[in-house]
Amino acid sequence: MSDESAELARLLLKHEIEELLYREAELLDERRYEEWLELFTEDVRYWMPMRRNVPRDELEREFTREGTDVNWFDEGKETLARRVKQILTGVHWAEEPASRICHMVCNVQVLTAPPAGPSAEIAVKSRFLIYRNRVETETDLLVGKREDLLRRVDGSWKIARRKIVLDQSVLLVKNLTFFF
Amino acid sequence: MSDESAELARLLLKHEIEELLYREAELLDERRYEEWLELFTEDVRYWMPMRRNVPRDELEREFTREGTDVNWFDEGKETLARRVKQILTGVHWAEEPASRICHMVCNVQVLTAPPAGPSAEIAVKSRFLIYRNRVETETDLLVGKREDLLRRVDGSWKIARRKIVLDQSVLLVKNLTFFF
Amino acid sequence: MSDESAELARLLLKHEIEELLYREAELLDERRYEEWLELFTEDVRYWMPMRRNVPRDELEREFTREGTDVNWFDEGKETLARRVKQILTGVHWAEEPASRICHMVCNVQVLTAPPAGPSAEIAVKSRFLIYRNRVETETDLLVGKREDLLRRVDGSWKIARRKIVLDQSVLLVKNLTFFF
Amino acid sequence: MADGRSGSLNGLVDVDNGVVSREIFVSEEIYRREQERIFARAWLFVGHESQIPRPGDYLVSSMGEESVILCRDREGGLHVFLNSCRHRGMKVCRYDEGNTREFTCPYHGWSYATDGALVGVPYAKDAYGEQLDRSRWGLVEVAQMVSYKGAIWVTWDRSAPPFLEYLGGYKLYLDLLLDAWDGREGGTEVIGGIHKWLIPCNWKFPAENFSGDRYHGVSHRSVDMVGIGPSGKGRRDMQERNEARWLDVSFPELGHSMIAFLRKHDSPIAPAYQDAPAVADYFRRCEEDRKRRRGEYWRLFGGPGTVFPNTSPLARQPRTLAVWHPRGPHQTEVWRIYLVDADAPPEVKDFLRHYYIRYSGPSGLTEQDDMENWNYAHKASRGTIARRFPYNYEMGLGRATRGFEDHGLRLPGAITDVTAANASEHNQRGFYRRWRQFMDASSWSDF
Amino acid sequence: MADGRSGSLNGLVDVDNGVVSREIFVSEEIYRREQERIFARAWLFVGHESQIPRPGDYLVSSMGEESVILCRDREGGLHVFLNSCRHRGMKVCRYDEGNTREFTCPYHGWSYATDGALVGVPYAKDAYGEQLDRSRWGLVEVAQMVSYKGAIWVTWDRSAPPFLEYLGGYKLYLDLLLDAWDGREGGTEVIGGIHKWLIPCNWKFPAENFSGDRYHGVSHRSVDMVGIGPSGKGRRDMQERNEARWLDVSFPELGHSMIAFLRKHDSPIAPAYQDAPAVADYFRRCEEDRKRRRGEYWRLFGGPGTVFPNTSPLARQPRTLAVWHPRGPHQTEVWRIYLVDADAPPEVKDFLRHYYIRYSGPSGLTEQDDMENWNYAHKASRGTIARRFPYNYEMGLGRATRGFEDHGLRLPGAITDVTAANASEHNQRGFYRRWRQFMDASSWSDF
Amino acid sequence: MADGRSGSLNGLVDVDNGVVSREIFVSEEIYRREQERIFARAWLFVGHESQIPRPGDYLVSSMGEESVILCRDREGGLHVFLNSCRHRGMKVCRYDEGNTREFTCPYHGWSYATDGALVGVPYAKDAYGEQLDRSRWGLVEVAQMVSYKGAIWVTWDRSAPPFLEYLGGYKLYLDLLLDAWDGREGGTEVIGGIHKWLIPCNWKFPAENFSGDRYHGVSHRSVDMVGIGPSGKGRRDMQERNEARWLDVSFPELGHSMIAFLRKHDSPIAPAYQDAPAVADYFRRCEEDRKRRRGEYWRLFGGPGTVFPNTSPLARQPRTLAVWHPRGPHQTEVWRIYLVDADAPPEVKDFLRHYYIRYSGPSGLTEQDDMENWNYAHKASRGTIARRFPYNYEMGLGRATRGFEDHGLRLPGAITDVTAANASEHNQRGFYRRWRQFMDASSWSDF
Ligand code: FES
Ligand code: FES
Ligand code: FES
Ligand SMILES: [Fe+3]
Ligand SMILES: [Fe+3]
Ligand SMILES: [Fe+3]
After folding, report:
1. Number of the ligand closest to the Cα of F259
2. CB B24 within 8 A of CB B108
3. Exposed, middle or buried, F217 (CB in 10 Å: 0-12/13-18/19+)?
């Protein structure tokens, strides 16, 4: 395959992934949570560690560990589905009235070469700025990075794993009733 | 047309649209307002509704209605042109000295397939983060979504309609002397 | 060269540049400063002017001048390298413990047509939102624009010149121990 | 200054000499005292009946710093309640408006009927037995309420005088906003959507500006250059104004005031709205009808004004009502509604709606500059040295007259004719005279 | 209110009649007084030994508003120091945790050993000569410290009573958290990661809620509908609770309290954790062992509670310890640790960890709604009118008994049996009785 | 502490024993009192003549918390005005610098000439008649102003002593900054661009640090390791320093101080700027000229210092003047200008400019760490317990001498020779002695 067509393949893949991630943001902010859930594989791992302030030469201690420590999130699809179900009850007061949320997605990086076969997995990085405003003047801003593993299932990409790196140590918001 | 060339056409269109929207941001933030105005069709509708806090099952009441209610903006090109003219008088105190404004444009989605004919319309979604800083330390942050209808006029895209969804209810800034 | 293939060439170039700028953000936020330095040419000019509030018809006085006035930054690679070295000492208290920083890069514009020859220079604009959070709750937000001159060196793009336009007059953060 | 809670305000407000200290705009102590002595005692505007037409309709509004619920009970009666649960204070209604049978608290589930009664208490019998006296624990309701031509006014103070007495002779001027343009009583309605936004300044900057500031033309010079008026030029249609007598009307003992205009005896109806024939026709017809209905009083028309303390009618197009809610000494939250004749034709309502939007509020070409000026006037008045230099309110001192009469037309209030002078600060002085009275009086009986 | 520093709180807190003024939640003066009279004098929780196992280990923690260093010196001794240099106040340790030989100040380089001694002073001899008395300038250390079953408690006040006396009869209930589930003394450990987050409300909202609020079921209705419990339904496994007597246990003279449950005499072990056989087995075995070890006391199990002022054990799954650090009158920073039996099998720890995360803290389906309610209960209580209406704490007034006994089992404390009533505010009243005592007493000798 | 407005500061500042309470850095009351007693009375620096060379030039500057306009009238006279309109307080000039004939207020259009006179009042005659006495309503001007060698100093207090008396013997040291490097009087200029930025700490942290903190080398260890000096190593060229006597010079009765150096009698000119021959030549020539002009005084050179209260010269390269503007007790806004010999060759100016940028301010490798330390020293001093433990200023207590003499060279001030000691806190003690005096004195006559 020529260089240029290889480049083109990578570009088309990146476009495909961006459309997926923008679509995801659209579903979340339009509160279409059930459709959003369908973007994840059944065996998805959704992990958001906490962060510590440690000396520069001990940065391996910076993050709490998946599967071992207490994290902000460390779960699979079932728990995610319960979160969605809870919001839709209409009596989840923390989201009633519904927050006004905007997911700004930036710096989308596809780290894997376009896969040959129909079924495949690729690694993707992206960054988020989440703006939440609710009730009268309550406003939150959360910024950080995401590391996704995407898997092609029946011809469309699904999120099989997501690591969320929030750029905070003490969480500066009262709750996490939204998704990253 | 093969799948890939269809994909490619969509990609080229998205690129074209991104360049337009980035160009727009450039013109605004460089205070080249008259050039910015030229990006709009003569019959443009520029609409920014207000938002209410309502129960999750009554979200149809969330937005004020275009053409009926009082909105933040609900106007055509003539009024937009007057806003531009006002800023350029040099005695529009709210923009004197000129604010330092940055339009961050994200999540650009082209919702329509690339049109066949020379004249056509496409629907585009994008998101904005507007940072305004002025005088000494005055700083505002506005985040939300845009829904544009673009029309090809004489071979170049123009904005024929823009809906702005700001993620606030009580407006947290003192005035709206800038554009979305 | 046909229109479409010209379009495609521009698109591929933009993709290449976006990957470079996203890669840069990745290196910075993962604190891989020495790799980051390698993205710059030996003769790079790194300039961040200060901004004044002036009447709209005297905007030529808005920025401090490169090479003449005192600026926020006005330097070459040697000084940049010293900044990096300082952070890595582990006793640069302003970055100890390490800040949690996120560079959101938006509105990437390639202003030059794709160059024919192997060695070439292109002009690129982009916008940044830098979120810094450190120690417990200390949080900063900086937003603005970058104007880069990129030069192809041994087949890869390097930054030969960067102008940073921060949308602030009084700097609202206590120090600039990070990079733009 | 002396401690704002108890001390007197001597020397801070001297309206006789037209000087007012900057302290009253920037001092924390004075601000806290305003909450106790003004906003907890005065009559405040909370909404319009057309915003809650049906039983069970509610609108969450604001009184001073606090959230209140304006609602219509199942019999159609109006109520205004503090939006806070009696049990642990939870904000019982976090929606802006809607229709409901009850307000159920999301913390422990106490529920209140639309008349404020505590009707639901989980485990009432088992947990409280006979102890809890529900009649004492309903929602906190205002002490007095009046709906005047659709505009709803309330006060927390049962010893406050009745609203019409509080309004006094100002009634004639408030009617200019609330009556239909053709002179019928009432007949105005709110068109949908409340402009709500924050301004970084003390609430008195906008309150005094609307009370009668004809003097800040330079603020709006850019609009005059650009032209947004209903006939395409300037800010407004000027002819009828230019042919009229300009009157600054104040009720210093009440604090209310308005910018008013009085047409010449037998002056014709001035042309207006030339851009929009349908609108021009409508208003011409209204003027004729009003003339017939009101006789000599037809000659009177209004502009901006302020009902003490913080409600500002604007009695001409764009016809609006603004409330300046205090949000700390250095911030104000504005709520702005827009009024039209309920039975005006759609094209007229639409034309006016567009005019409102381009004129008023944060997106209004005119008022954007007011916000900028109030913001930086406030900010530049906070410093140690600045606070030593009072503001100047001398304009037109001693020119006011009582018992105004013009060709047999009598107008109430203390009136300064500024037709020649162009402007005065007569109304602002009246506003601060009343402000001083509220702040000094420890109870309504001291007034 | 009277000046919060010196004035009495008469009328603000009347627990005998079950009313408490909103002032104590929103007033700046009262908040400042709390810092002096409560947080500078009471016993506070700062961490758990399992967080700093080795010599030189340290954890930066918090006491009231201030940062402190909890560390283990080179001999393994425990210390808690104010995290501020004695020279110019620099925060000497800006890391969260680690291991060190010294804390060196980044401003001028004074360094302190892990026992707090000032061991390094640049140019000591040349610049200070003999002047500087290092023994007087070591890190500021707490006046008293106790490690009780791994939980470390400290106070700044040397005249405070010894910890066990401060704890009093509450020991029995705190043990429900700190002892292993099988009844052995101690044997619990913290699993990694401290949840730290900010809530926009006064610190007393969560403190009183955990002290014994059985009444806020409506807050968590959505979770009950969705189901997150260890057996897949509801919030929790309910059977053993449903079969038990419900006891609100308070020590009004100490301020501590807990929601407790007492199984019926010879009731069997209720099934639980049906989703996870391994976990179900583990707990069944633990229950049996505890039964053997504790005899009748096996019947007692706990829920949420509060050790006055701001430490809240939750003695059942999810088994946690929360500290509500004041951050101004209107903000609280929560620190939350999670406890497990140190020698529970990995799959049990993992199961519980998942349960913690989905139940507790800002990402917990249950507690997310608590934060929302505390936020808006606080916000709606700040206004001038709101502050005139006290909160209601009447529930179950006068139902408490002392000397509780059930089939020969004696339980300490003033106890209200709410099995039939479902809930009471007995514990909250005890909390505010003690709060009032702290705020009125000028020193420990006045208690 | 006692009420900051009236109470005495006894016990808070005890410079004789070298202890200063943390209260004075973090207390709101003390901060407010500082605004009244220090910033409204002391001489403050507002700008340099080279920043406004031509008639009509203006620069918006700051005095304490307030914005002021420094401008040159049409006759070239200098003025400093409060940047607030006398009518309603609007900030009349919202630009940073420029040239103008008048300042026109954007609210109502009052306009002021560059000498502060109220020259334009819309509708003056019609609206005000003869009432408005314009002479009383010009811009508020400072009470005294002095331009000393291009540096402009002002005070709001007419009873303040003349500037040169206020400066006293410190003149000799301030000249080290303001005179040309070759010893000619004056001859320095500002190079374009003012660094302005915010630091989250009390203004006294930087003021005392610059007054004479030789002790915080550890703060800058990373720069010493990396090397940014003009000869490529360390922070600075050290040789001339290393060969000199180190003197901490303070005027305790005035509050001014500086770190100074005195070359050995007939020591040669030390090599410097080895990276840049042109610069090395320039400074060698300057040193020779200065030697010729100043004789023995050539031996004296300076470092950082502070003119009480908040102006800090740095008399060596990078040669700067910093002003620490208070912005509340917990925040400081720094304004920093950079000085060069007006007639130095371009390559010298360019070399120094680069050195400034990499050394100073928020982007300066050296000072970045100062900001971090001031930030967290302040933050860790705010708590209830922290405020009970004073800072330590004992270093070098009792070592100061008056009437310093070295080979016939006399130096004014109380001087501590720290050549052997490396550092002292002599200058800081002098700063706080004066601070105490300002805070206790109710007027200049009490000094
Ligand atoms: S706070 Fe409303 S029921 Fe408890
Ligand atoms: S502040 Fe710690 S050594 Fe000076
Ligand atoms: S405020 Fe300046 S003219 Fe009125
Ligand atoms: Fe206006
Ligand atoms: Fe709860
Ligand atoms: Fe330093």
Report:
1. 6
2. no
3. middle
Measure in Å the smallest separation between the Cα of F130 and chain B Cα atoms. Answer: 30
Contacts of residue D205, Cβ cutoff 8 Å, sequence gap at least 6: D25, D332, D374, D377, D378, F88
Q: Which atom of ligand 2 is nearest to the CA of E89?
A: 1
Alpha-carbon gap, residue F4 to F24, rounded angstroms: 10
Report residue E447's pLDDT band, with 50, 70 and 90 as the boundaries: confident
Q: What is the pLDDT of residue F180?
A: 97
Q: What is the pLDDT of residue E1?
A: 37
Ligand 3 mean position, distance from CA F63 (Å): 22
Query: What's the pLDDT band for E266 if we cut at 50, 70, 90?
Result: confident
pLDDT value for C45: 98
Query: d(Cα A38, Cα A32) in Å, to the nearest integer?
Result: 11
Residues in chain B, overall count: 180
Distance between CA D67 and CA D92 in Å, rounded? Answer: 10
Confidence check: pLDDT of B127 > 50: yes
- Quick check: C89 contacting E, CB < 8 Å? no
Chain D residues touching chain E at CB-CB below 8 Å: 35-36, 39-40, 63-67, 82-91, 94, 104-109, 122-123, 126-128, 131-132, 137, 140, 156
Pocket of ligand 2 (CB under 6 A): E 85, 87-88, 90, 105, 107-110; F 377
Distance from D88 to chain E by nearest Cα, in Å? 5
- pLDDT over 50 at F6, yes or no: no
Out of F98, F194, F196, name the one closest to residue C54 (CB). F98
Q: How far is D107 from chain A (nearest CA, A)?
A: 9
- The residue to mutate among F90, F91, F139, having the most atoms of ligand 3 within 8 angstroms of its beta carbon, is F90
Which chains border C (3 or more CB–CB pairs < 8 Å)?
A, B, E, F
Among C28-42, D187-201, E222-236, the least confident range: E222-236
CB E280: neighbour CB atoms within 10 A?
Answer: 19
Q: What is the pLDDT of residue F100?
A: 98
- Measured CA to CA in angstroms, residue E319 lies from A170, B143, D434, E344, E349 at distances of 21, 40, 61, 14, 11
Closest CB to D94: pick one of A91, A135, A137.
A135
- Give the closest residue (by CA) to ligand 1 atom 3: D108
Ligand 3 centroid distance, CA of F162 (Å): 34
Burial category of D25 from C-beta neighbours within 10 Å (exposed 0-12, middle 13-18, buried 19 and up): buried
Chains touching E (3+ CB pairs < 8 Å): A, C, D, F
Please tell me the pTM assigned to this model.
0.97
Calculate how far, in angstroms, residue E215's C-alpha sits from the geometric centre of ligand 1: 9
Q: Is F134 helix (H, G, I), strand (E, B) or coil?
A: helix
Output the CA D373–ligand 3 centroid distance in Å. 9
